[in-house]
Amino acid sequence: MQFSRLRLTGFKSFVDPTDLMISTGLTGVVGPNGCGKSNLLEALRWVMGETRAKAMRGGGMEDVIFAGAASRPARNYAEVSLVIDNQDRVAPAGFNDSDTLEVTRRITRDVGSAYKVNSKDTRARDVQMLFADAATGATSPALVRQGQIAELINAKPQNRRKVLEDAAGIGGLYQRRHEAELKLRSTEANLLRVDDVVEQLA
Ligand code: ATP
Predict the structure, then answer these.
(1) Which of 37, 40, 91, 159 has the CB geometry, 3.0–4.6 Å to 155, for a possible disulfide?
(2) Does residue 60's CB lie within 6 angstroms of at least one atom of ligand 1?
(3) Are 201 and 125 found together in one domain?
(4) Which atom of ligand 1 is nearest to the CA of 39?
(5) Per-residue confidence at 103, pLDDT binned at 50, 70, 90?
(6) Is the CB of 31 under 6 A from ligand 1?
(7) Which residues are part of a known binding site for ATP?
(8) Which phi and psi (to 5°) does residue 178 adopt?
(9) Average model confidence (pLDDT) for the chain?
(10) Is the pLDDT reported for residue 139 higher than 70?
(11) What percent of the chain is predicted at pLDDT more than 70?
């Protein structure tokens, strides 16, 4: 899955709309301490559906919204868009009718997050699956945080296995299996209820 552009508006330190063009191959981000390099990586995770505020180095999800500076007031929303080249149709069914996909997430104070794919409202779960199936996503081992290598070395074997599974792109399958099991359990409970009703009527 080739990312071609990242756009941030009101996201953490990126108060003004900022475009980052992403070419094929390796992309390096360099700059002085505190200039926002990690914020860029977090924007990528966030637009892919990250739900843990802690993973965004915040106490709550709204902490990603520009909080204001001496000369600029705080913003009311943050938005990140990621443009994906989909010419080889690697996206899952339902997202494959276009050569490019633009995934947008916006969070508004006191309202929460909303996602769009090519301007169409989309569920968070579908955006998360879109990336999980392509072996990337908010928890992808391809996005390496500071300190993550040391964490991996000290991780339990089960957690290391999860990294390999995410890299193999089967994270989405586990999620679907989990959802299917929940549906199965609720259907079994409904069947028991039907049996009870039938017994009462007999
Ligand atoms: P280092 O090289 O030290 O790791 P970095 O380039 O990765 O730094 P970041 O950690 O991405 O920098 O950015 C930190 C900056 O982002 C800080 O100046 C911090 O004040 C600013 N920042 C973080 N969240 C917000 C927010 N919600 N509103 C405004 N600024 C924010």
Answers:
(1) 159
(2) no
(3) no
(4) 11
(5) very high
(6) yes
(7) 32-39
(8) -60, -45
(9) 89
(10) no
(11) 95
Let me know whether 132 and 177 are in one domain.
no
Cβ-count burial 132-144 (b if 16+ within 10 Å, e if not): bbbbbbbbbbebe
- Give the mean pLDDT of 111-127: 94
Task: Please provide residue 101's backbone torsions phi and psi, each rounded to the nearest 5 degrees.
Answer: -120, 130
* Sheet with 112-117, edge to edge strand ranges: 18-21, 2-9, 77-85, 100-108, 112-117, 120-122
Lowest mean pLDDT among 15-19, 23-27, 55-59, 137-141: 137-141
Q: Which two tokens stand for residue 28?
A: 């390096």
* pLDDT reported for residue 54: 84
- Asked whether residue 159 is assigned to any structural domain, the reply reads no
pLDDT grade, residue 55 (50/70/90)? confident
Which residue among 11, 38, 56 is best mutated to probe the pocket of ligand 1, counting the most ligand atoms within 8 A of its Cβ? 38
pLDDT at residue 60 is higher than 70: yes
Tell which atom from ligand 1 comes closest to the C-alpha of 69. Answer: 29
Q: Is residue 122 part of a domain?
A: yes
Inside any domain, residue 57: yes
In a domain, 162, yes or no: no
**Pocket mutation for ligand 1, best pick of 14, 29, 35 (most atoms within 8 Å of C-beta):** 35
Tokens in use for 115? 């996602």
Token pair of 118, please? 């090519």
Establish whether residue 14 lines the binding site of ligand 1, counting it when its CB lies within 6 angstroms of any ligand atom: no
